[in-house]
């Protein structure tokens, strides 16, 4: 009975973290999968979201380590704030950097993310510096276990479903088709009279807002948020592997990729735990190596991912291609 | 004046020349293979780590540089063969993702074999008394000498050898180079050899100046990109100038802002250059 309860808690925790990761992968899918914006600053927006929500909702900081915050606002206000502030920062970054070619944008976004992380780590008065922010409220935490965890999971999954639905509507609308057109051929899209710069900025801002929301969700899940929680390895790199493995451009693929890769990541931890203590710490690095290798294998041999992107349905009877096929 | 030299100029020169050595490779790879090589910082770290066992055997760190350069060059060519070559014909951005993965794999290997501890080639040495009041240590003289030798050798290679001239031709215009009969695949291999060897040397020099740690190179990636872009992509001499400028600005910035935010300076310079003069100071390629 004891072990069964433990197993449930473990699975619920696993699904919660995978669900939070899929919020990030959906955000990245808007940027990279749909619009082709190479954003590798996920960790930065994730940090902004997490700290914003923590500052807005946490209890006042301890006198020994004062920092901004302690407003004890309702949690939904924190989440909304996380998305708004992440979006605002993304808007500023995008205004300056989105005109750059893809590689330059990559360098620019990773630079911004590092500067954001350095700022949070060093500016104690803003977010507690290396001590981080503690006593962040968690939804349903007053319920008995395992119900508190299960309800939190349901909340996360509900968020994922809502985001999925909104993005699906978006990318199957004329808006989404313009985004794909920009990804495939920017000049042609501009020649067709589309405001490429504005559309790219929109995709970047929406995607980054979701990354901020993912950060906020994890801050409330962990109940405390430290600079280590914004490690680019998990906050940026794993998200990229998830999206590419799952199938970039496809929202179902983005979510599936999050669960599959998070599953592999967690299982590899089980395997390394079986090793002796001396090797267990070292084996943690082997896991990272294998994730890097997985990315290379996916890129070289399965570049379209588990669920490849589907061409959008064109809602005006039979398309010419279908007619040609039938004839 | 003496104080200014001790506090800022000396460290700016050391940092700038390390950036310069790393930025040459980034600039050439960017121009010839058309992608931002995100694992270049980890090539630096690789060089620094390869020197460790030799230093433990009693070899002077400066003398380990050629060995580290050779091993790193071989590994770089192997990495290119395994992880970048399959994507030569696809969009360059895929190679950026692949190099991001290579960076992660290399870093996990450093941690696997070296742990998270810091390593040092030697204990802290007092500044040389003969050069008072300038606080110049023996390490600074070794670093300076090594940089002069390395930059001169690079200059000789690029300006006087067939391979070097072909590399410059290819970084100017790969298509034109191909139609004039330059064996492009072989030049690509040479680009990796030169770029990785210089990065490895920069890593050993950085290790001599400070310490050896698994993320030492990764943390230098942004300023090295900034240096390469500032100097103009495909312009090795520009990369050297860019490295010195970025190193100088970063050190001088500590007069007005806390040292923790140094990397923001490199970033700001890079973004400004990309917006107002994307070809860099030496009229490099705009990709």
How would you describe this structure to a colleague?
Chain A is mostly helical and 327 residues long. Chain A has a domain at 15-229. Chain A is 72% helix and 0% strand. Chain A has 13 helices and no strands. Chain A has helices at 2-34, 42-57, 75-97, 102-122, 124-127, 147-171, 174-184, 186-191, 196-222, 232-246, 251-273, 277-301, 320-326. In chain A, α1 runs parallel beside α6 (147-171) and α2 (42-57) crosses α9. Chain A starts with a helix and ends with a helix. The model of chain A has no long low-confidence stretch (mean pLDDT 87). Chain B is mostly helical. Chain B has one domain: ABC transporter involved in vitamin B12 uptake, BtuC, CATH 1.10.3470. Chain B has eleven helices and no strands. Chain B is globular, with a radius of gyration of 18 Å. Chain B starts with a helix and ends in an 11-residue tail after the last helix. Classes of the chains: A mainly alpha (327), B mainly alpha (287). Chain A binds chain B through residues 38, 40, 96-97, 99-104, 106-108, 110-112, 114-115, 118-119, 122, 233, 237, 240, 244, 282, 285-289, 291-293, 295-296, 299-300, 303, and chain B through 30, 35-36, 38, 82-83, 86-87, 92-94, 96-98, 100-102, 104-105, 107-109, 111-112, 115, 222, 225, 229, 258, 260-261, 263-264, 266-267, 270-271, 274-275, 287.
